[in-house]
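Section: Multi-chain targets

For targets with more than one molecule, the full set of components is provided together so that the structure can be written out for the assembly as a whole rather than chain by chain. Components appear in the order listed by the source. The example entry contains two components.
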Amino acid sequence: MAQKYRLPEGGRVDRSQPLRFTFDGKSYEGFAGDTLASAMMANGLRLVGRSFKYHRPRGIITSGVDEPNALVDLYSGTSKHEADARTTMAELVDGMDAKSINNYPLLKYDVGAVNSIFSKFFVSGFYYKTFMWPKAAWLKLYEPFIRKAAGLGTAPTVPDTDHYEKHYGYCDVLIIGAGPAGLAAARQAARSNARVWVVDDQPELGGHLLTRSATIDGKDSDAWIAEVRAELEAAPNVTLKTRAQAISYFDMNYVAIWEKVTNHMANPPANMPRERLYRVRAGQVIIASGSHERPLVFADNDRPGVMLAGAAETYVKRYGVKPGKRAVAMVNNDYAYGSILALLDAGIEVPLVCDLRQEPDGALTQAVKDRGVPIRAGHAIVAIKGKNSVRGVKVAALSEDGKALAEGEKPASQACDLVVHSAGWTPAVHAHCMARGKLAWSDDMSCFLPSEGSDANPNVSAGNCAGQMDLASVLTSGHEAAGQVLEALGMPANNAPAAPTADPEAASSTRILWIVPGEKELGYGSAKHFIDFQNDSTAFDVQLAVREGMHSIEHVKRYTTTGMATDQGKLANLNAIGIVSEALDVAPEKVGTTTYRLPYTPTTFGVIAGRDIDELLDPARTTAMHPWHEDNGAVYEDVGQWKRPWYFPKKGESMHKAVLRECAAVREDVGILDASTLGKIVVKGPDAGAFLDLVYTNKFSSLKPGKCRYGLMLNEDGMILDDGVTSRISDDEFYMTTTTGNAAPVLDHLEEYLQTEWPHMQVYLTSVTEQWATATIAGPKARDLLAEICSDVDLSAEAFEFMSWREGTVADCPARIFRISFTGDVSYEINVPSDYGLHLWNTLMQVGRKYGITPYGTETMHVLRAEKGFIIVGQETDGSVMPFDLDMNWIVSKKKGDFIGRRSLYRSDMSKPDRKQLVGIKTVDPSVVLEEGAQLVRELKAQPPMDMVGHVTSSYMSPACGRSIALGIVKGGLAAKGETLYSPQPDGKVIEVVTCSPVFFDPEGSRQNG
Amino acid sequence: MLLIDCPHCGPRNESEFHYGDQAHIARPENSESMSDQEWAEYVYLRENPKGLFRERWVHSAGCGRWFNAVRDTVSSRIVATYKQGEEAPISAEEEGGLL
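Its structure, encoded as tokens over all components, is:
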């Protein structure tokens, strides 16, 4: 029969709108307004999942965000796949497909439940104790076992095609939670000039009033909510967000809010995001996040059919569903009797109530008594019958101290299919704590309450989360919180409403028993007293942890995993603290709490990523010549964000062959490289020369206009930051180039010194990397090629020397031609305004055909420069290399005075003979190419460890040298050139090498100068 | 996410800024005559007080300018920001204390 647990009437579901859903492949029906949990319950589905560690059968425990067990995978195998969705938070949608998790092969017959039999071995610290050694077993034995045995839902198998948005929000007052406290606050704030945001995770406003209605301001709470809602919706200064959970609270009132936009729609409009992340900066925050009902810790309190009293009430009242037919309750407070009344109203039989209190008092207690329900004072449920579903309980009187069964007591059986329990309510102090607020223990309420807040995060807690538990004071505290923050903002409410009123509740007693004793002593027998249902940690585990020396609650948490993962103190925390405090015999405030981690509730990756995916995650930068590279099959290397051609393979050509061909072309004819990505900075102003003298190790103020100079830039610690060629354009203007990856850091570095150390200098720095496109032509035929398309510059070797630049016209474009070389051959770097870059490239390719022009990429560039012993910053250097280590004393000016890093070069450590220094490296077998990063040793031993004296930084097969070449840094390498070193390989072989000068090709430089 | 009041642009999110550590440390002009120890202290060592701290920030994704701030390192609240060259609202002696 369909929905056999659905009440004929009542609740906030729409019975005229039936919705179909499937659970583990079977089809069911629910109604609009259901959550997946309430719809499953309406169909009598009790066993909804298996637990994490013991694979125990589990059902629905709560009705909200704190649900630890009733998690499912939604829409498995589709683009909408959502792992570990809380059934209690998932609004039912027509066609919803849910799958139980953590069970194999079937929910009812789980093979992993064998863990339950061996549960004696799975005590706290089990992983630490068992899986210590041998190391090799981790990979083969332990890890696969743990992975199979534990874990919740499955990862998606296909990409998520929905889109997710991020928005920034700004307001004066942010109100978290739209229950009675939040609404009372919102109504007042709405009447001020403040910009107000109100967010709530539920589809409807009202919070707990949706479960337990009341009379507010003399009217039914539904009417009151509707009235407030209308006022908020009409107020132009109020932004109201439902289905929006404040998940994280960051410094200075910066709150992340996760909104489910179309999750509840069967056919969402294509233009709407599935979810949205708001990042709201608020002047003041009112935290009205309510409270969580606390479970009692009793024997087998995890069996399907055992649930929190308030949750049972919610299913009856809000969703019109009966969680069972006959319920036994165990409570320790009066408020829970309101839940029992709701069950009675729904026609659920309540044969008896166990009250831990010796003398149950309170108006609701009396009302239940008046309905003829037997209330057993000082009694407890000491055992549960039934595994996949509750079949009954055993009830017994407790000893006076509540630590054991009463002397000679024989437990009595009572059949039932539902157990509801309540240990009272724990204030949800998560937001307060994320905002660096402190907590104080309340003896009256046996819980932690917000105390001191942080002055960096102005906020006020109101309602349950501030320890105000009865409705009248909840409403007052919400109203007053708004008054308080509006006053702090200097924006009082106009025509302020009076505080909403409700009948105050008479005081009643509560009795705290952190552990409700079972038939057998804790740790004996098969019954388990669960504290954390998700992580399967029990009262016994916590006691054991304390006995084993874990006295800090933070240690207990990690040792037992209590309150870890998604719980974060919602259900488990306070019970764990209570049990630890008893075990240590100290007051709970001395035990303290663990950190409330953000986010408050598990959040989808989709909404965290938002639009920052695929090409928008890290945008690619391309040069003006990129279309040509695309058309001509370039293979790219990512350098920072740039797409640089790595090599240009011909059809079917390997990388190795392509690079050999490209290298040969540069050495024999002419090659062309897209060098547009080099960082380019204009340094301009009367003090430009003096400024460069301070930032480079060598002198630039003496450079003549028209000339270029290679420079080395250091950090203040003397280590190499960057290198590059800087040219003088005019007396007051220089054109600096940096390495591709360092363009931004170098500009930042220069700006920092200019602004903070030498603000008196008249210098302006402008990045022009994007403004110029650069084509480098290199090789013996480069000059002839350039001459064909440039007629207004004398290109002869005498008139246009190496390390100088000329302004002219190239391919009909205004151009700056720099005669500098990173290859060791005659080379011109032709700079044109970016818009002309592609034209320049095309022209050079066309005209260059008869010279055998060959495009080359970064790999060939690296080989060619290594043949010349030119370093690459970040390859030969690593932040611990200074100029002397590279044998570059020549570039460090002794005369010109101070520069950044100068003093550091003369620290005693810098002259140590065993510093790692740059050398060339030749393998004894010229055909062997070393691995970059390979370690080098002087003394070979039979096996590691060996004293590593350096490593290979660059290594290539050099066509020009006809052999392999490498660069490396080696301890004391400069003085020991020519020594034999060894590179032991992972396979046990050893490569023998000899160090040499790093310049392998044309050491006289006749080619580049010619 | 701190809210930092750039003295040139106004309040902006922390993600627009970069941190520059302790403020009001001038680069020594007489480094030649400094001992290795003194120089190393300038290059590597900075105060790390609990309480108020005068520190440098740069509005890198905004105006690009360096400025100074006084921040309470306990709460991360930024008490004041001020331009380069302006006097700090607290003295060096008050660093680590409370306002």
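The domain at 912-1010 of chain A is CATH 2.40.30.110 (Elongation Factor Tu (Ef-tu); domain 3).
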